[in-house]
Amino acid sequence: MTTIKRKWAAGTALAVIGVLSSFGVALQPGQAQMRPTPFSSTEELVAGADMNGNGMLSPKEIRDYVSRWFDWLDTKHQGKISLQEYEAPLRMAMTKADGSDKMALERDLAALKTDFSLIDKDHNGTITRDEYAAWAEQRSLRVAMVAQGTPEPTTAEGDGSSAPIFGSIKELSVSELRTPLGQGLVTALEPLIISHRNAEKPHR
Questions:
Q1: Which of helix, strand or coil describes residue 153?
Q2: Cα–Cα distance, 12 to 95 (Å, whole number)
């Protein structure tokens, strides 16, 4: 094969891999892999939070993931983060992105403002590690319950935030995290996922 043909074949292979990745087709060990993009955040979350290695996530694993990585957002080391700190990883990623990746990050950034207000239970303009972790756990429970057809619990206010019986909830699969509700959870965790992606090792 000539040099030109080899270069063309390599370029074509990378393009095919990129298309497959954007549609959520997982690459097997040993296959060429491209640099992570915002579209691979679901897989990155599973890889970073799946402590027992079964390829699925429990609500507790998601809560623990938030607790482990919260300090990467808490740049002032105050035990709480502002909206500016919460958005910072996405804003940084946007400076290095273009095209569809940048558009996706812009949509996620807009969603973060709503997520922040939901996580900030006491409405004091900051969120603590416990607020973020508890919210992520409850949201993951809701994703699992909807995906798995389990009736949602309700509080007196009917907001569906009370804890269900854990024994009736199965762990979340990648396909369940790819549902619209699951992607909402992934977006809310995107600041941590990007921090994890850029870090050399976990900050404990």
A1: coil
A2: 27
